[in-house]
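Note on ligand handling. Small-molecule inputs were canonicalized before submission; formal charges were left as drawn, and no protonation-state enumeration was performed. Where a ligand contained multiple stereocentres, the stereochemistry in the source SMILES was retained. For nicotinamide-adenine-dinucleotide, this procedure yielded the string shown in the input block below.
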Amino acid sequence: MGRLKGKIAIVTGAGSGLGKAISETFADEGAQVVLTDIDLDSATKVANAIGTQAIALQQDVVDEQRWDDIVQATIDAFGTPHILVNNAGLVLPGTIESCSLELFRKQTSVMLDGVFLGCRAAVNVMKANDQPSSIINLSSMAALQGYSPFIAYTAAKGGVRSMTKSVALHCKEQNYPIRCNSLHPAGIDTPMVRQESVGAAGDATPATGIIPLGGLGHPDDVAKLCVYLASDESRFMTAGEYPVDNGLLYKPD
Ligand SMILES: NC(=O)c1ccc[n+]([C@@H]2O[C@H](COP(=O)([O-])OP(=O)(O)OC[C@H]3O[C@@H](n4cnc5c(N)ncnc54)[C@H](O)[C@@H]3O)[C@@H](O)[C@H]2O)c1
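Structure output:
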């Protein structure tokens, strides 16, 4: 408890799955949290359950102007943010043969343009922070090994992976107090992986204890790593990429 005391965080896509768990865990650790989502109702429910430490705002991460509004609203409510988690996302199926250009652009606009806009807006204000700041980008295991049913998703997540390193290196070169890292989950039990097109199978895994054979990860498995990367405990870590996949990358079956 208290590992993020005094920190102010923005979490996108905070109404569901990983974003919900990350927001709740940040608040448990003492952060003040701005939860944004394209679906305001879902983010509001999560923020209300957290209490006065949290507010919810509607945001489509593709909307450039809205990023300025979100940062300003955060400053007005709590102060300049120290943490941004670029988490919002969706998954649209399509292989290299079946994916239309329209679908490809829709997928990459949310997952790649949205992360670019978020990083840019955050660096713009965090660079003047007198406390260390941290940007965490949700990439995917799909960025590290490819995933043929989701060509556009993998392209976007691969872009997030390398963009993260460029953001981190720029901040280091400029002597900004900002670190930037990417996470690469797979098979975490959220509405996204349970949807029909993704079809992840397995038992839901409890938040703690032994992972059942063939089980899915719990959103807290990602949220706890986010706490570490958001906190000053990880002060020597930037431009990194961190799988949360129960070894799937090295042993796929
Ligand atoms: N669950 C996993 O195993 C897994 C694996 C790899 C990567 N990820 C990544 O983690 C992130 C969270 O995924 P999740 O599993 O929690 O999914 P989820 O579907 O449960 O949550 C995604 C949230 O993003 C919001 N969202 C969608 N489009 C948006 C937009 N344009 N602007 C703002 N909000 C928007 C949705 O409303 C939803 O609340 C995604 O970036 C996803 O690609 C998840």
